[in-house]
Amino acid sequence: MLESYRRGGHLETRYVSKIGTGGKVLVARLKPGSDLLLSIRSLAEKEGIVSGVILSGVGLLRAASLRNCKSFPDQYPITDVNRTFLRFEKPLEILSLTGNVSGFQGKPSVHAHITLSYVEHGRISVIGGHLIEGCLVFGFAEIFLMELEKVQMTKEFDEETKTHQLFV
Fold first, then answer.
1. How far apart are CA 158 and CA 161, in angstroms?
2. Of the N and C termini of the chain, which has fewer Cβ atoms inside 10 Å?
3. How many angstroms separate the first and last alpha carbons of the chain?
4. Is the pTM of this model over 0.85?
């Protein structure tokens, strides 16, 4: 299986990268009823952050909506046919929140993944996926977002994957 990814006897590494530096750090406490994704996007827009990294996120959700890839298409792009969308309505602890903020059509775009835990039948279970709208705060959520300097991050159309991807 791994052999199909080898090129010339070695695994291929393909990437584009830039070096930036850390800038200001935004610390926010989201209040009950806040949508997690919309709040991060709103905070980034208010502070003018279009190149940033989500350092951390903790808290408690009353509901979560997640997206995950369930199959690979025969050719790009990956579409909703290849994805599953799940909704959870129960106490959900945020174990980790990670992602980035980049510019898209003149506004901040948030790409984030989240790991959550919940208790069912006396056992703790863990779920995770792509953060989408519908993750509602219960009690609080604490978000730490760092602006990146000396690097411009934008979402642009990528010919290879036929989707909007991060360009630096």
1. 6
2. N
3. 32
4. yes
